[in-house]
Amino acid sequence: MYKALYRKWRPKTFDEVVGQGHVTKTLKNEVCYGKISHAYLFTGSRGTGKTSCAKILAKAINCESPIEGNPCGKCETCQKIQSENLLDIVEIDAASNNGVENIRSIRDEMVFTPNTCKYRVYIVDEVHMLSPGAFNAFLKTLEEPPTHVVFILATTEIHKLPMTIISRCQKFEFHRLSESEICFQLKRVSKLEDIKIEDSAIKQISVFADGAMRDALSLLDQCNNLCSEVINENFVREMLGIPPKESILEIVNGILTGNFSKVLDYIDNTYKFSGNLVRLCEEIIEYFRNIMIYKATGTFQHFFESNASYAKQISLKDAMLALSLLQVAYKNMCSGNNKKLELEIIAVKLCNELSKCKASLSKNPEEISVENTSIASFQEPCQEPEILSDGPLKSWDKILEKIKETSSLKSLYISLADSQAYKQKDKILINAKSSFAFEILKKQEYRSCVKKIIYEVLGKKFEIEPYNSPVPTDEKTASLPSHSDTLEDLIKRAKLNNIEIVSKQEDF
């Protein structure tokens, strides 16, 4: 009879358990030193190894010759426990045996000594499903059982257990497995089972498993049964009902550009072809979550690293706005009946909100009216600046090139020609020959664009301030260039950079 992969590859020793070293190390030490507790409580999310560790512990404490806390797996007791043919190891499903009568039968049985083992072990799975009466009946039994009885309780919802039960047990918390741990185990199983699968497909399975090894192995088993060729990422996404990465990018692009019809058409097509709209919403949430993490920390997650340049177009504020709206939609989709309508409503709202944000960011600063322009404090060049020992900033030329490539910053680039910059802690001090550059940078829109370019080049956020190199005392009183000189210098620089000058004469 065929055995599912998650059952076939269930760990048989503590050393084979993946990702729960903090639990297995303690249990091995207890077995080695003979300090066996009368009651254990294993808690954690699904598929993290609670039941597996319970069975291993039952074998280890009854093993005739344990090896460094692990069951040997060769003695008669270990083999009988492994084949589930031993009466002294009792597994109880509390979901279906949750009454007072069931607890009473355990209490009546445990007074008898074990048949063949040193300990009679009761493994109670999903113990939080016991009724209030059953918990009350269990208290005295759990507190002072006979010396030959060990209870191992397992639950995914420890908050449903009375504190009187928790306090009588030795508690172990099982953590969710990391994606790298799941990937490692999936590659090992795939190799031993001769399953042909690409690394990208394994990574996708590990992401979808959400920290549960059992889920990951079940998905691998399902993929292997469905696909007769090499399993790739697209096949895994299609089987799980996850839209292709390219489709997610198209939807996000449609949202940012305000393309209502493009986004709504995709949602409609997904619905027509029986696609999972809830899964689609989850993927969009995951995408904006990755953008938020990238903006906050500068690191990518999952498949997102291939879209670094695209991510830089979205601000942290926009990403958080999208997440807050999508979370509400996801909650409504899970609880409501009309999932398509909920997703369409939030898609239209996102298109409207984010396209406006993006338009305001990309708008030419020269076209913004004076009334809407916020002028932040930008000091004039200081008369006696600190002499910086680091010398001019080497990346300044690269920053200037990016300023030149930005159409809305042409005039600023001209005024910054032949300029230098210095780095001082979290500031970039600009030393420009033309004072017109500082007049431009007084406007918030220009300054934000320059700060963004500096962040892209240097990978760190800096404030920008003016800087003039120290001058001799007798030159400090020298007059500043006149307005006409500054304008003539600006026109001259514009012509050198092949920028067209348009002269306007207004009647007053």
Structural write-up:
Helix content is 50%, strand content 8%. With 508 residues, the chain is α/β, with parallel strands linked by helices. It has 4 domains: 5-174, Rossmann fold, CATH 3.40.50.300; 179-240, Helicase, Ruva Protein, domain 3 (Orthogonal Bundle); 245-362, Zinc Finger, Delta Prime, domain 3 (Up-down Bundle); 373-469 and 482-500, GMP Synthetase, Chain A, domain 3. The strands form 2 sheets. A 5-stranded parallel β-sheet has the order 2-3-4-1-5, covered by helices on one side. Strands 6-7-8 form a 3-stranded mixed β-sheet, with no helix packed on it. Helix 2 (21-33) runs parallel beside helix 3, helix 5 (100-109) runs parallel beside helix 6 (132-143) and helix 16 runs antiparallel to helix 17 (339-362). It is elongated. The termini are far apart. Mean pLDDT is 80; it is low at 360-387 and 469-485.
Got a strand count?
Answer: 8
Distance between the first and last residues' Cα:
96 Å
Q: Specify the CATH architecture of the largest domain.
A: 3-Layer(aba) Sandwich
Q: What value does the Rg take, in angstroms?
A: 34 Å
Can you write the helix and strand succession as a string?
HHEHHEHEHEHEHHHHHHHHHHHHEEHHEH
How much strand content do the residues show? 5-15%
CATH third-tier fold name of the largest domain: Rossmann fold
Estimated helix fraction: 40-55%
Shape: elongated
CATH class of the largest domain: Alpha Beta
Structural class: alpha/beta
Task: Tell me the strand order in the biggest sheet.
Answer: 2-3-4-1-5
- The low-confidence runs, each spanning 5 or more residues with pLDDT under 50, are 360-387, 469-485
Put simply, the count of helices is 22
Overall pLDDT score: 80
Number of domains as seen in the coordinates: 4
Largest sheet: 5 strands, parallel
CATH superfamily of the largest domain: P-loop containing nucleotide triphosphate hydrolases
